[in-house]
Amino acid sequence: MGEGAVTAGGITWVTDRPYAQGNILRTVNPVTAASVSEIYQTERWADDLSYAIPVENGEYELTLHFAEIYSRYQGANQRVFSIQLEGGEVVSSLDVFAESGGFTGMTKTFTVEVTDGMLDITTSQIAGDPAFAAIQLRRWCTPIDPCYQNFVTGGN
């Protein structure tokens, strides 16, 4: 997606690089998605993929975006991992290919409470390397207006 911010589908996405380690995989293949397909053409992957995102304390709606775009993992049980938010497991064995197929975007949405000023997202490898395509974070700034933070993998 390139350096800095990118706008896709009317949403501004910023690089996840300040908050994560790991490797980037990009594909030129089209990815089927209910929302913005461009964000699913990159993924950040690592055997110990994790994020530490500084945020204000409070309750957030977190949406994690996934798509199986790596040719080696175009089958069930090739990439399976668990996800922890703030130290608690929210998904025990995610297999993106088994749930959505190859080159197809999918999301998982959670409510998470941050009490230490840092949103911690960690993964545990079961098979293959954990990977995310994008992260959306929403907090209610006023009673009627949400605030969004949108991170896409692949930024420099």
Task: Give a structural overview.
The protein is mainly β. It has one helix at 96-100; strands spanning 6-8, 11-15, 23-26, 42-45, 50-54, 58-66, 80-85, 88-94, 106-114, 118-127, 131-132, 134-140, 146-152. It has a 6-stranded mixed β-sheet. Strands 5-10-7-8 form a 4-stranded antiparallel β-sheet, with no helix packed on it. It has a 3-stranded antiparallel β-sheet with strand order 3-4-11, with no helix packed on it. 35% of the residues are buried. The model has no long low-confidence stretch (mean pLDDT 88).
Task: Kindly list the characteristics that best describe this protein.
156 residues, mainly beta, 6-stranded mixed β-sheet, 4-stranded antiparallel β-sheet, 1 helix
**Rg, Cα atoms, Å:** 15 Å
**Based on DSSP secondary structure assignment, what is the total number of beta strands?**
13
- Tell me the series of helices and strands, N- to C-terminal: EEEEEEEEHEEEEE
Beta-strand share of residues:
over 45%
User: Helix coverage percent of residues?
Assistant: under 10%
Biggest sheet details: 6 strands, mixed
Give the count of helical stretches.
1
- List unreliable stretches of 5+ residues: none
Q: What is the average per-residue confidence, as pLDDT, rounded to a whole number?
A: 88
The neighbouring-strand order within the major sheet is 1-2-13-12-6-9
Look at the helices and sheets and give the structural class.
mainly beta
The rounded distance between the terminal residues' Cα atoms is 9 Å
Which term fits the overall shape? globular
